[in-house]
């Protein structure tokens, strides 16, 4: 296990990058705590896999350093870093049995045969393949092969970090849930530092202690699921986390009031805002349909998803999504929406603005 430090790290796939836009991974400076489980979350092309491959040693960064427990490992190989990595598509040896595949990393390290047998049996049970341990891998389904690949990544107990690059893409939905549960149990039992790349917010939020949200080659927020939901540090985090995502509306902010297309919206605190683009963001869960107060909206449709209803509305050309809990009244004459002031965030040039009185780094 290791504390992972990203020191002035950046990467471009161009030989001579001329500007920041030429970098697939823009400058990062972060410490990732020893023994925590992290998820790298973002849309395709945001730099998740680039960062993972730099951490693992498969890719050498254009600038900066990677440190494990304070030791510079930037020039070292994956083997020297003592990393286990599981890729999006399964990598198994078809001519070997499931048991031999799982045992392979331990045999390469010269581990005691008794320990290998016990550990392989344990991992076989963990991935639900005890009954097929002595079967050759040729002819197994893609999801079975990926389970073997996951098991081989987890079989070593002394690794500095376990890295997963969208490993559940080929797994059926029920097995995804089971394997995520097993990965969390493994982390709880052994305390490995784990980094899990995904574009699926459900996978990220259910797996990780901390979620690292990436956008356009940057880390825009690192936080717990609650922090990402309650106080998105960037409008992208608001869009990407949640279903539906956060409502974002252009505004002029004056102290404790925002003005949206001439309509006043009360805020839960006072703000001093400067920036070319000022917006407010409020999640659908903190929006309420009313008859006689709030922003006037036109309701386009109502989607009943069982646990609640999603009301799709428009205000002056802007989409506004409202979540009405089960049993909450929704009627044709409810054509206005109010926002809970305590849950309205203010953004300047896409970054969240802290209210008056909040200390630096505080989420208030």
CATH topology call of the largest domain: Rossmann fold
Report the span from N to C terminus. Answer: 33 Å
Secondary-structure content class: alpha+beta
The radius of gyration over CA amounts to 24 Å
In the CATH hierarchy, what is the superfamily of the largest domain? P-loop containing nucleotide triphosphate hydrolases
CATH architect. name of the largest domain = 3-Layer(aba) Sandwich
Shape: globular
Uncertain regions: pLDDT < 50 for 5+ in a row?
none
Largest beta-sheet characterization:
6 strands, mixed
The side-by-side strand order for the widest beta sheet comes to 6-7-8-3-9-10
Task: State the name of the first-level CATH class of the largest domain.
Answer: Alpha Beta
Please provide the count of β strands. 22
Q: State the helical fraction.
A: 10-25%
Strand residue content:
25-35%
Indicate the mean pLDDT: 89
Counting DSSP H or I runs of 4 or more residues, the number of helices is 9
Counted up, domains total 2
GO molecular function: ABC-type ferric iron transporter activity; ATP binding; ATP hydrolysis activity
Family: Belongs to the ABC transporter superfamily.
Protein name: ABC transporter ATP-binding protein
Keywords: ATP-binding, Cell membrane, Membrane, Nucleotide-binding, Transport
């Amino acid at each position: 296990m290791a504390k992972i430090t990203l020191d002035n790290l950046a990467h471009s796939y161009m030989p001579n990058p001329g500007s920041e836009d030429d970098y697939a991974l823009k400058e990062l400076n972060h410490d990732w705590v020893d023994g925590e489980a992290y998820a790298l979350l973002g849309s395709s092309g945001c730099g998740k896999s680039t960062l993972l491959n730099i951490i693992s040693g498969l890719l050498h960064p254009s600038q900066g350093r990677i440190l494990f427990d304070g030791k510079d490992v930037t020039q070292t190989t994956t083997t020297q870093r003592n990393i286990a990595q599981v890729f999006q598509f399964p990598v198994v040896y078809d001519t070997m049995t499931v048991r031999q595949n799982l045992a392979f990393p331990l045999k390469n390290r010269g581990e005691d045969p008794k320990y290998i047998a016990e550990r392989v049996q344990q991992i076989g049970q963990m991935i639900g393949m005890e009954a097929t341990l002595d079967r050759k891998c040729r002819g197994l389904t893609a999801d079975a092969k990926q389970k073997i690949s996951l098991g081989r990544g987890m079989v070593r107990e002394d690794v500095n970090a376990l890295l997963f690059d969208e490993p559940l893409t080929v797994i059926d939905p029920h097995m995804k849930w089971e394997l995520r549960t097993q990965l969390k149990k493994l982390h709880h039992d052994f305390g490995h530092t784990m980094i899990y790349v995904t574009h699926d917010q459900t996978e990220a939020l259910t797996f990780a202690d901390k979620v690292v949200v990436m956008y356009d080659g940057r880390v825009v927020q690192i936080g717990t699921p609650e922090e990402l939901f309650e106080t998105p540090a960037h409008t992208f985090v608001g869009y990407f986390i949640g279903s539906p995502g956060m409502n974002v509306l252009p505004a002029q902010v004056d102290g404790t009031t925002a003005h949206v297309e001439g309509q006043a919206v009360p805020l839960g605190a006072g703000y001093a805002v400067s920036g070319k683009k000022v917006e407010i963001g409020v999640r659908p869960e903190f929006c309420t349909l009313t008859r006689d107060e709030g922003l006037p909206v036109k309701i386009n449709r109502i989607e009943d998803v069982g646990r609640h209803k999603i009301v799709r509305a428009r205000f002056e050309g802007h989409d506004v999504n409202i979540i009405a809990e089960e049993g909450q009244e929704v009627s044709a004459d409810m054509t206005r929406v109010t926002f809970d002031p305590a849950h309205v965030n203010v953004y300047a040039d896409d970054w969240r603005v802290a209210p008056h009185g909040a200390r630096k780094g505080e989420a208030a």
